[in-house]
Write a structure and sequence with these properties.
- With 664 residues, the chain is of the alpha+beta class.
- It has 16 helices and 35 strands.
- Among the domains are: 99 residues, ATPase, nucleotide binding domain (Nucleotidyltransferase, domain 5, 2-Layer Sandwich); 135 residues, Rossmann fold; 103 residues, Dna Ligase, domain 1, CATH 3.30.1490.
- The longest helix is centred in the N-terminal third of the chain and has 32 residues.
- It starts with a strand and ends with a strand.
- This is N-methylhydaintoinase A.
- One of its GO terms (biological process) is glutathione metabolic process.
- One of its GO terms (molecular function) is 5-oxoprolinase (ATP-hydrolyzing) activity.
């Protein structure tokens, strides 16, 4: 039966599915469900039915979900307790001295995930040199009794300097695991890295989302088994997949699972001759922007979700609350705004005909003619144009605009402005010229907005991959298996013994290689967090084995000059040692065969200069090497592509579309 892989990505509005078999790519969309696993199974069944195969013949199942990030955004995670060192109970509340809104006198810090009444202290003391005061086991058992009486659902343990010497923390965690029938997250297992607030915050997040992840993955595994398909492999925030048991133990690694899959998919399917790609994923509730350079997604270890720092390796994604389902509204000053509130999947935009009455970006696209009344979103949702016009007419009255079309144009422009700012934040603000990149547009709504956004940034090329509406699901089929480890090891490069550094890398490498699915196929990549003496931030650079201090110093100086415009004649400090293991997977081969007449008809569409009668094409019937001049609209089951006047689009052999400004 060959290699039959299926990838499923759960979004806020739709659950996307891609099925690869014998060079063919079958896609499907179904509405997301409250219990995400129900929508996942429904999507798998729909894709298998379209491919006319038995689900039991699927050889591999990869999955990206929003369970953990939803728990953080909606603040409905587990009833969590924190056990920490005596005197450090309030570290989650104190946080850092920096304020995101420096001049806002009414600025509020986020409410800690663990309230003070569920934060407990133990009398122990560990320094960077070792354990000075061991744990009193009787005290820990007394705390366990209190936690039992409080019916806590999860426990985070974060003791002072446990990243360097975890003996006390290990003992506390072991006792709590023996005494309580709940998950226990220990900071040295979650993040063996210094900076107490970030380490404690990341551990608390892991504990907060862990029961939900455990329930969800267990439930999905059972449903998959009933359907006869393999246990799911889960996409992590770092852009790699891993087995279900690993994410149960390291739940925090799933916080940006879906967006990471989209960036991986763009990098694998939309690679072109540009220096790199700006990836633009516009879904139902939000838009995600990232960079792919030298064939790899940009990564960071400085993530923030709902104002809570999470230090775990993740694809560097900038998210804005502007998706197809984002609701348009007028603020107190009369300005038109978009999001972050979304109509979601139920009731959804007004045009879905499910009872929604508030205007959304999707309604605006329908009124502008970019989506037609006959367009079937996700292959199954028909649209109600009258409801969309009514919703936009109400918005026009509130905003003082001349009718629903003007309101729709305003919504489209404001949504594009929000996304343009996000792209600037990952390019211009980080020293990259966006004009040197291509714009890879995907998600259900991304290709409708991509050309207009590219115009505003002087980007001259837009790449719309095959299966662009479900590209995150495709990315799951192409993603490598990845695992990360970090350990703080603070030394000056002037005095450090390279053999000691190599010993740290060797130990971290062995820990990861013991967990990979195929040790012989795994590659090991080492990197180091370095800084000039006196700095409070680091830059991560790749390092070779055996460790060479001169080479590491030069690589850091080059990276610092690129990021900040200068290099200094100062001592360089090693802060953290990092290791990533990768087991590569080949992206599934995808054949593109177009047959039939691609022209579907035409309809009126509103562009910046005028209302134009615009030809409409069916994407799957566009022959390779064909070209279309704008204005034009290209429709697929998962997404719609808008080609404005003065642009044209070319069809590649694999079905990828490349839109560019016309030279005429």
């Amino acid at each position: 039966m060959g290699d039959r892989r299926i990838g499923v990505d759960v979004g806020g509005t739709f659950t996307d599915v891609t099925l690869s078999l014998d060079g063919e790519l079958v896609t499907a969309k179904v509405p997301s469900t409250e219990d995400q696993s129900e929508g996942v199974i429904a999507g798998i069944e729909k894709a298998c039915e379209a491919a006319d195969i038995d689900p039991g013949t699927v050889s591999e199942f990869s999955h990206a979900m929003t369970v953990s990030v939803n728990a953080l955004l909606e603040e409905d995670g587990a009833k969590t307790a924190l056990v920490t060192t005596d005197g450090f109970r309030d570290v989650l509340e104190i946080g850092r001295q920096d304020r995101p809104s420096l001049y806002d006198l009414s600025a509020q810090k986020p409410t800690p995930l663990v309230p003070r009444r569920r934060r407990f202290e133990v009398s122990e003391r560990t320094t960077t040199d070792g354990v000075e005061q061991p744990v009193d086991e009787g005290e820990v058992r007394a705390i366990a009794e209190q936690l039992r009486e409080m019916d806590v659902e999860s426990v985070a343990v974060s003791l002072l300097h446990a990243y360097a010497h975890p003996e006390n923390e290990t003992r506390v965690a072991d006792i709590l695991r023996d005494e309580l029938n709940v998950p226990v997250s220990a900071s040295h297992e979650v993040l063996a890295e210094f900076r107490e607030y970030e380490r404690t915050s990341t551990t608390a997040v892991d504990a907060y989302v862990r029961p939900a992840i455990d329930r969800y993955v267990s439930n999905l595994t059972d449903r998959a088994r009933d359907l006869g398909i393999p246990q799911p492999r889960i996409m992590q925030a770092n852009g790699g997949i891993t087995d279900a048991d690993t994410v149960r133990r390291n739940a925090v690694t799933t916080v940006l699972s879906g967006p990471a899959a989209g960036v991986v998919g763009a990098g694998s399917m939309a690679a072109d001759e540009q220096d790199g790609l700006v990836t633009f994923d516009m879904g139902g509730t939000s838009s995600d922007v990232s960079l792919v350079r030298d064939g790899e997604a940009e990564r960071t270890t400085e993530g923030v979700i709902n104002e809570r720092p999470i230090k775990t390796p993740m694809v560097d994604v900038e998210t804005v609350g502007a998706g197809g389902g984002s609701i348009a509204w007028v603020d107190a000053g009369g300005a038109l705004r978009i999001g972050p509130r979304s109509a979601g999947a139920n009731p959804g935009p007004a045009c879905y005909g499910k009872g929604g009455t508030e205007p959304t970006v999707t309604d605006a696209n329908l009124v502008l003619g970019y989506i037609g009344e006959s367009t079937s979103l996700g292959g199954e949702l028909s649209l109600d144009a009258d409801a969309a016009h009514d919703a936009l007419a109400d918005l026009a009255d509130e905003a003082g605009l001349d009718g629903p079309v003007e309101a729709a144009r305003g919504v489209y422009r404001v949504a594009n402005a929000n996304m343009t700012r996000a792209i600037r934040s990952v390019t211009v603000e980080r020293g990259y010229d966006p004009r040197k990149f291509g714009l890879a547009a995907f998600g259900g709504a991304g290709p409708m907005h991509a050309a207009a956004i590219a115009d505003s940034l002087d980007i001259d090329r837009v790449v719309i991959p095959r299966a662009s509406g479900v590209l995150s699901a495709y990315g799951l089929l192409a993603a490598d298996e990845k695992r990360d480890a970090v350990r703080t090891y603070q030394r000056s490069l002037d005095t450090v013994d390279p053999d000691d550094v190599d010993a740290v890398y060797e130990e971290l490498s062995e820990e990861l290689l013991a967990e990979v699915s195929d040790r012989e196929a795994a590659t090991v990549r080492c990197s180091a967090d370095l800084r000039y003496a006196g700095q409070s931030f680091e830059l991560t650079v790749d390092v070779d084995r055996p460790f060479d201090t001169t080479d590491a110093r030069e690589r850091f100086a080059t990276a610092h000059e690129s990021a900040y415009g200068y290099r200094a004649d100062e001592s360089v400090e090693l802060v953290n040692c990092r290791v990533t293991t990768t087991v590569e997977r080949d992206a599934p081969p995808v054949e593109y065969n177009a047959t039939g007449d691609p022209r579907k008809g035409s309809r009126e569409a509103v562009f910046a200069d005028a209302v134009r009668e615009t030809p409409v094409y069916e994407r799957t019937k566009l022959p390779p090497q064909d070209g279309i001049d704008g204005p034009a609209i290209v429709e697929g089951d998962e997404s719609t592509i808008v080609i404005p006047p003065a642009w044209n689009v070319q069809v590649r052999d694999d079905g990828t579309l490349t839109a560019a400004v016309s030279n005429e």
